Amino acid sequence: EDSAVFRLADQRVASWAYFAGILSVVLYGLNVLWIDPATGVGTRFLDAVAAVSDSPEVVLLLLTLIFALVHSGMASLRETGEKIIGERAYRVLFAGISLPLALSTIVYFINHRYGGIQLWDVKGVSGVHELVWLSNFISFLFLYPSTFNLLEVAAVDKPKLHMWETGIMRITRHPQSLLGR
Is Disulfide bond found in the keyword set (predicted)? Predict the structure, then answer.
């Protein structure tokens, strides 16, 4: 399979317009239903999890476990869920639940990254900043070919089967890239 190839001639303006419309609706819905403290439940969710412990490490661990259990649990129930409500509806439901939980976990981590126990301090070590940027760039290059077809999302185009039998793509691909079985 020829991964990570983008040909302008293969693109349909209608698909990209549909994608932009769906993305706008999803982001607006995410804001209203989850992010905005006045209307969303995200703040109440974080407050409920944070009420378990005063330790940011424990809260982050709980948020990560909640996300992992829900995300993996829903992935394991995909076949059954698709039979009950349909493929596209289940993919939208899956993303609609996973995205807010992932967002809450990431934002909590960012807001508390300097709290809690410090395991090491490498801010003053020469070259660490550059090494982190370089390693992130390399990881993006490994991730890009397997996942960067924006139209191949739950609500636009049905994800296709991507099988790479050898090499870095076999190691780095996300298990959900096998959705189109």
Answer: no
The verdict on 129 and 156 lying in the same domain is yes
The reply to whether 3 falls in a domain is no
The per-residue pLDDT for range 70-95, each reduced to its tens digit, is 999 998 998 999 999 998 888 888 98
Which of 172 and 86 is assigned the larger pLDDT? Answer: 86
Task: Read off the tokens for 171.
Answer: 């190691």
Of the candidates 103, 106, 108, the one whose C-alpha atom is nearest the C-alpha of residue 49 is: 108
Residue 33 lies in a domain: yes
Neighbour-count burial of 105, counting CB atoms closer than 10 A to its CB (0-12 exposed, 13-18 middle, 19+ buried)? buried
Q: Which of 18-22, 39-43, 115-119, 142-146 has the lowest mean pLDDT?
A: 142-146
Residue 103 to residues 35, 54, 60, 67, Cα–Cα distance (Å): 9, 21, 12, 10
Q: How far apart are CA 26 and CA 91, in angstroms?
A: 13
Please tell me the least confidently modeled range out of 28-37, 71-80, 134-143.
Answer: 134-143
The domain in which residue 169 lies consists of 124-181
**Between 1 and 156, residue with greater pLDDT:** 156
Residue ending a domain, choose from 75, 100, 117: 117
The verdict on 98 and 135 lying in the same domain is: no
Pair 105, 134 in one domain:
no
